């Protein structure tokens, strides 16, 4: 894994961002920049995460980001946190609160990347720079960090083909259950998966799943089974582990056992891989992503350059060439659990190998 590439430190040059507007607006931004440049470690960082159904946000992202910000500021920074619980309107209110509370910089993982645009603009108008975290938010963001999302989808699609082996022919029918249309990452996962799967197998049914809901995925899978036929489905592309759980429940109820993909390396997903119910997940090392967000946020709050942190550039429909950090991913199967999530300290063997999974763990050499 190429994690070393993301060990970064904030530089010392002032940020230079192209801006448009009146002379008064330009002057206001210049004054704001001077104020930011004068700041030391005593900064206030706003952190807004999108939902709490997916385990990663509260278990990994939040504590990792908070820890890194504290490290970078000699424990002097304040982190003001909120979770939108998958409600875009609530998240807009949370941005308003952050503006009222005069945070110095805002890290936002958008519930709805398009709907957040006005809120991002309001924050910027108030002199608060915005770091888009994990999802590329619309609006005048100053920085972005995520994973290579098309590569995630491609990794999932290729893994499904590997699982199918000789059964992967143009006549082979699979079902695709993608993420939410409000999440731009979902479209990129989908694009990458199609790049791997199109022309290799037949996609008999495909769904975009509202809110990434496992319950919705379960219903979609039940509908696909009825439409395609239980015995005619050879595999399922699931965009993440949470939905994979709902999908596998539906498959088991229909007496079907086929390869199912996933993403996020959630504990329940890893345990399903151990048990043989789920074929793979995508392991996304959260520490480099969280560290990059913290480093960029602290640099922006202090008026420093992102040059030493962000080596990539990403564009949205709102802004071009956003300084970005894109973190590589890895396919996780039963063969490399020990060398990924266990080695990196995400889970212990004891976490994974509870009584229910003890014999399956022993068969894999997880002791």
In helices, the fraction of residues equals 40-55%
Give the helix/strand class: alpha/beta
Mean pLDDT: 90
Number of helices: 13
Distance between the first and last residues' Cα: 24 Å
Shape: globular
Proportion of strand residues: 15-25%
Radius of gyration: 22 Å
Taking pLDDT < 50 over at least 5 consecutive residues as the criterion, the unreliable ranges are 1-37
The succession of helices and strands, N to C, reads HEHEHEHEEHEHEHEHHEHEEEHHH
Q: Give the strand tally.
A: 12
Characteristics:
seven-stranded mixed β-sheet, alpha/beta
Please characterize this protein's 3D structure:
- By secondary structure, this protein is an alpha/beta fold.
- It is 42% helix and 16% strand.
- It is globular.
Spell out the blueprint of helices and strands:
Elements: H1 23-37, E1 44-49, H2 56-72, E2 78-83, H3 88-100, E3 105-108, H4 117-125, E4 129-133, E5 143-147, H5 149-164, E6 173-178, H6 184-197, E7 202-208, H7 214-228, E8 233-238, H8 241-253, H9 267-275, E9 281-283, H10 286-301, E10 312-314, E11 322-327, E12 330-332, H11 338-342, H12 349-352, H13 358-364
Task: Give the structure's gist in a few sentences.
With 367 residues, this protein is of the alpha/beta class.
């Amino acid at each position: 894994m190429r994690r070393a590439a993301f060990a970064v430190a904030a530089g010392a040059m002032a940020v230079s961002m192209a801006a448009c507007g009146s002379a008064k607006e330009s002057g206001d931004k210049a004054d704001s920049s001077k104020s930011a440049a004068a700041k030391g470690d005593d900064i206030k960082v706003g952190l807004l995460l999108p939902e709490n159904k997916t385990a990663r946000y509260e278990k990994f992202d939040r504590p990792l980001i908070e820890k890194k910000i504290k490290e970078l500021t000699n424990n002097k920074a304040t982190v003001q946190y909120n979770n939108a619980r998958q409600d875009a309107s609530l998240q807009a209110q949370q941005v308003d609160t952050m503006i009222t509370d005069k945070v110095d910089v805002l890290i936002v993982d958008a519930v709805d990347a398009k709907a957040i645009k006005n809120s991002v603009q309001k924050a910027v108008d108030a002199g608060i720079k915005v770091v888009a975290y994990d999802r590329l938010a619309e609006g005048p963001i100053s920085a972005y960090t995520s994973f290579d999302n098309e590569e995630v989808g491609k990794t999932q699609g290729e893994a499904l083909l590997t699982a199918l082996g000789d059964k992967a022919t143009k006549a082979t029918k699979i079902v695709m259950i993608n993420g939410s249309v409000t999440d731009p990452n979902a479209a990129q996962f989908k694009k990458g998966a199609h790049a791997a799967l199109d022309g290799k197998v037949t996609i008999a049914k495909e769904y975009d799943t509202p809110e990434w809901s496992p319950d919705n995925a379960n219903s979609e899978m039940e509908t696909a089974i009825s439409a395609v036929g239980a015995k005619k489905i050879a595999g399922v592309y699931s965009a993440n582990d949470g939905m994979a759980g709902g999908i596998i429940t539906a498959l088991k109820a229909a007496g079907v056992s086929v390869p199912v993909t996933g993403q996020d390396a959630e504990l329940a997903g890893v345990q399903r891989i151990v048990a043989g119910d789920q074929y793979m997940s995508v392991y996304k090392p959260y520490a480099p992503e969280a560290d990059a967000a913290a480093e960029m946020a602290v640099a922006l709050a202090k008026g420093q350059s992102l040059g030493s942190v962000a080596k990539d550039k990403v564009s949205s429909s709102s802004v071009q060439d956003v300084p970005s950090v894109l973190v590589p991913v890895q396919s996780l199967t039963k063969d490399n659990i020990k060398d990924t999530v266990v080695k990196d300290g995400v889970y212990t063997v004891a976490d994974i190998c509870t009584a229910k999974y003890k014999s399956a763990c022993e068969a894999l050499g997880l002791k």
